[in-house]
Amino acid sequence: AAAPEAVEAPTLERKTDSEVFVSWTAPEQPNGQIVSYVVLQNGEVIVETTGTLYLARGLLPDTEYSFVLRACTSAGCTESRTAVISTPTRPPNGMPLPVISNVTGRSFLASWEPPLEANGIITGYT
After folding, report:
1. pLDDT tens for residues 11-42?
2. Using DSSP, how many helices (H) and how many strands (E) does the chain show?
3. Widest pairwise Cα distance in the chain
């Protein structure tokens, strides 16, 4: 037995704004029995499994994520190319109320703090 050859990059499919299905097929040249698959997200191991599907959860908005598949036999492991997906931007969350001051008959001063979670790039306030 030897390490697998030609391990294909995983397929990525967005399930929700914060979840991505990561799926894959067995290598065409496994060079022995596949004993496990390891999925790496942004370089960190997130799961070791014998299956061919994983649901990555808790992803942050407006963020790029990379996934790599590692297929392993008893003789060693081989990594795939990187697959990349970006999560969508979401509306801000936790917007504090504005503070109104210096009220006169014709004008006032409004000030505010940024939201607790921008969930992307703030492009303006209305």
Report:
1. 999 999 999 999 999 999 999 999 999 999 99
2. 0, 10
3. 85
